[in-house]
Amino acid sequence: MEMPQNPRGENTFISTQSFVFSSVPIPVENGFNIDSSGTKELCRTPLSNGIVLSNANSPLDSCMQPLCSATSGKSSPCSEEVKYVSSEGENIACGWGAFTPDCLQFFNTPKGILFFLCMASFLQGMTVNGFINTVITSIERRYDLHSYQSGLIASSYDIAACVCLTFVSYFGGTGHKPRWLGWGVLVMGLGSLVFALPQFTTGNYEVNFSEEFGICGSNQNISCTGSTSSLSNYRFVFMLGQFLHGIGATPLYTLGVTYLDENVKSNYSPVYIAIFYTAAILGPAAGYLIGGALLNIYTEIGRPTELTTENPLWVGAWWIGFLGAGASAFLISIPILGYPRQLPGSQRYVVMRVSETHQLKDGSHKTASDPDFGKTVKDLPLSIWLLLRNPTFILLCLAGATEATLIAGMSTFGPKFLESQFSLSASEAATLFGYLVVPAGGGGTFLGGFFVNKFKLRCSGIIKFCLFCTLISLLAICIFFMHCPNMPMAGMTLKYNGSMLPEGSLQLLASCNEKCGCLREIYSPVCGTDNVMYYSPCHAGCSTVSVLPEGGKKVYRDCSCIPQHSPSRLGHATAGKCTSSCQRKSLLLVFIFVVILFTFLSSIPALTATLRCVSDRQRSFALGIQWIVVRTLGGIPGPIAFGWVIDKACLLWQDRCGDQGSCYIYQNSAMSHYTLIAGIVYKVLGIIFFGSAYLLYKPPRGSPDSPVASPPSSSSASENTTDLQERGSVLQTQNSV
Predict the structure, then answer these.
(1) Whole-prediction pTM
(2) Which residue from 305, 434, 648, 661 has the fewest beta carbons nearer than 10 Å?
């Protein structure tokens, strides 16, 4: 039996499953009779390949007649075994080369590839947006870096991605996507191992600190050598690791998204993509929690130390997570490399997809519907030009860039913000930020895709939904008008007699500690019984130290600068910062949660709108161009700008033998107000871009978004007829194989 040619000229696929049809009644799906009246109008829905289903009989015209006639007594084609075939005879089995065992075919489904891609995105998020952001303070302390330098390390990921995106998305979009994805995960794992390399190439982290060191009257001496300043050069190794992370993750969020979109039904695509991105959001949350726990382990494992986690000189085991991430990436890449170019039966979803491509006035958008378009480099300039002429696509890219700036900046320095506002240790701040990101970021990402599927939103409706979410997050971000006050600190915000100090002045020495010989280089804050912080036990005038048996916390006694409780006893202090009693803490956390929730709630809908407003042939390349815009205007400058702004809010810099090190204490009010200004500016820009995209979007004629649209029932009806139409476009009997 001869199979009619696909009007698109694209491949149909072999299914490893055989189907036997004895008879086919008139199909009824979801309570809708396929053969009912009014179906002829439904068959004029434009498809993504540029054709329109008409009332004329055609191989795809399942709207007009059943797939097979159920005539009795005659041999029907449906009585024979039926298989999906590939017109090019390409192998679509899951495996590596000739090794394609039957047991692996269980995973050769959209759900199977979704599982492994979710593992890869989870690992990428945990490493790049979790571990790195969690350990950034420890790396600054260990390698004498400024915040703008650590911001440059974070931005190196996006710089590498921008360099590779055009090449990967253009050639990978028409190539073997799973192989690009698998090799990308391998490179990402190599980047994790490189990032941990400085731990093994530098000397041990040595801190001249003992129980007696730093108290009043002790022999205090800091030797200044040239070796300490050279540690900052290791930032280039961290940047190399981030470059490899960026190169490896580039296929994941371009080719991975389009591979999922091509292999599932169009109405299920937002859900699959939402699950994929939810894993990417849960990854950073796990990174914050695991990274925060690892920071409680001393970086030099097995070496005793007198430091405690409350001490600002403490450096946790920041490097362990990267070793585990590198090993995991190598394991995850193996199954991804075994997937075929396209999954069995996926071509039916591509053929029957309804087009929502933005319509250009001169009709040049139809050029991208050519099956041969985009297969050679000579089509690259035209492909870029078609995307640049699509105002909806460009405005969605700019809206994504505004959101990416805030996400990149806050994800990098969010733990540091909480650490300063609530007077927390680095590990406590990272853990708390993880608790915020898990439900808000992960839940918002999944719910965004769920709402698009639940309400069957078309492209214009999706853009309106994004506009609504951005408006809500703009209102919530105004909470940064509030902030928690800095804990009072003697010599910085307060004089030792309790009176206020002018802003920016530093008076660490007073009559109570002038004979102690205190050094500015030794910063070890203690909390006095008067609930005031002191620069060090020496600056508090403490002369003795003891260790509590419960928890091993140090207590410094006989402190001459701490007000006396009785004429016969001097005050005492405990190691670490004073606990913040900020009454606005709960309110700040709630509104930060809302900002994160609604920011991520629009992420999947915006991505779905991007995929729908361009032609099928340009989807991978469009995502690549979008990521270039998002990272160039958002992801790269975001951490650098936020790091520069946070440095401006610094009250006390580390003094390394006359050189400026990392920041010890930040001014909470300045940090909060800078965050507020940045948030309002970028959220307003996001509203402008989403609103303009909605107004300028021009859907195809006859689509539900078009002014000349089908009847209200046609949208749901065409969805119900899709399954039957799909079967007619991809079936061929065994006799023709």
Answers:
(1) 0.67
(2) 648
